[in-house]
Amino acid sequence: MDLRNIAIIAHVDHGKTTLVDELLKQSGVFRDNQTVSERAMDSNDLERERGITILAKCTSVEWKGRRINIVDTPGHADFGGEVERILSMVDGVVLLVDAAEGPMPQTKFVTSKALALGLRPIVVLNKVDKPDAEPDRALDEVFDLFANLGANDEQLDFPVLYASGRSGWADDELDGPRKNLDALFDLVVAHVHAPAQVSRRTEPFQMLATTLGADPFLGRILTGRIEAGTLKTGDTVNALSRDGVKIEGFRVAKILAFRGLSQQPIDEAEAGDIISLSGMSKATVADTICDPSVTKAIPAQPIDPPTISVTFGINDSPLAGREGKKVQSRVIRDRLMKEAESNVAIKVTDTPGGEAFDVAGRGELQMGVLIENMRREGFELSISRPQVLMREENGEKLEPIEEVTIDVDDEYSGTVIEKLTGNRRGELVEMRPAGAGKTRIVAYVPSRGLIGYHGEFLTDTRGSGVLNRVFHDWAPYKGPIPGRRAGVLISMENGTSVAYALFNLEDRGKMFIGAQAPVYQGMIIGEHSRENDLEVNPLKGKKLTNVRASGTDEAVRLTTPVTLSLEQAIAYIDTDELVEVTPESIRMRKRFLDPHERKRQSRQAV
């Protein structure tokens, strides 16, 4: 069957997964009476909860006798490792842009990768039926973006469609009939060329593995596009590393092809198609699966290096082991190594002593998703504050700089600019009105300055601001950046918090816990109103007497405690603090001293 392989790329919340839903429906993948969930491609629980795409996924539809393989890619730069691998499997991209917001930072990141690979884009201006849509302005910004990213003349001569993914239509003209997505299907078939690999079907079999999965019945599953030859179930093939060294030879147990939302076993696959294989025990991402006569590996796309590092350790608090079942460092290490194998953007290294592991990745969101997945699997962990990874070139210390794009109400723009360009060492690049009483601010800010800033930003803008960030470049070290200004309230006792004690502590600052919460010595229970840390007793009860008087027995009314999410807690802590993560709780605490240091301090106290 005639093939087309495309990827759909877009910024977070520009309607990419919703558009794929409509493509599947209108191509006849679903029965008329079939119940289909919204955002069907977001199969992961976290993806549904957060409304973002985390893992790249494939699907396929048939249109007028042709098969179109569609790859849904993540829109967030923290998951860019997924995008960089996936783009090597396709021959064209559909760039989805919100007609009101225009191209955003994550759009820029993924588009630069696609243009560098020579892929020809199709631009779809989505949500043109919104009242604040400005499709002409958005189209001009897309053209400028392509020109700035070094697109060639063929890529700059891109076709444009106007669409509404939620309503299920796309047209060549802004005032078209607005009935269905036929124009998009026809344009993909006409504009994207068939895979060049089709002409190599007579050569020995070769395939580059781009994603790794697992199945309880089939074991390891590798997905990729066949670069040459044909493959049948039962064939014997080799797995080669990037250097061309043989890793293993194995018999192909099953070949799976993407048909709608499911994968179906097929007997034979040909060059150009995207398939999944099972039967291997060692082969992994970026390895070449090939005929035994092939000795040269297929070159794999280089992956951008990580920019931040977080230390994962065992939970050694007094409450360890009460809520999770996986608490040993050996089990944590195995899980992290498994993650690093399937996610090429993550690097895991052991720390001296073997009780903790440095995990390097793209950003706080990527680390937060990994930690959230692990806590749902029953792990207990202690997590350090993210550290930015530096680089040294020609004796000069370099640090990562991020491009920050902010849409904020006009009245808060001054506060935001002051925070970014002051202590956080940012550099203002652009500031212009964005319509509807909003200002768009673009700045280059060191990654160090953005750790922990998002919560402060939401407070400064009363929750109305939108902040997006993407890696920009490496630049000379910009000097020290001050951390959190406020101190914390630290429990000095072990036990269960008492409402009377917390009520009397409210003058000292805001609380992170409520009454009847388990606490221990060293646990952070609130934020101090001053810059120093303060040890407090949350267990102190009211002294009782046998005298009753009016007003002495009033009910204690506590202010609602501040509940920090996982990402907020990780960004909030200082370098001498940790986040304790369990399946049911997120707590913060001071780092415990090693036994020798603790003994030495207790002797001094005596």
Mean pLDDT: 83
Strand content is: 25-35%
CATH architecture of the largest domain: 3-Layer(aba) Sandwich
Number of domains: 5
Tell me the distance between the termini.
83 Å
Largest sheet: 11 strands, mixed
Task: Name the helicity range.
Answer: 10-25%
**Remind me, CATH topology of the largest domain?**
Rossmann fold
Please, how many helices?
Answer: 15
Query: What is the CATH superfamily of the largest domain?
Result: P-loop containing nucleotide triphosphate hydrolases
Radius of gyration: 27 Å
Please mark out the parts with pLDDT under 50 across 5 or more consecutive residues, or reply none: 601-606
CATH class of the largest domain: Alpha Beta
By DSSP, the count of extended strands is 35
Q: What quaternary form is this?
A: single chain
Shape: globular
Main structural class: alpha+beta
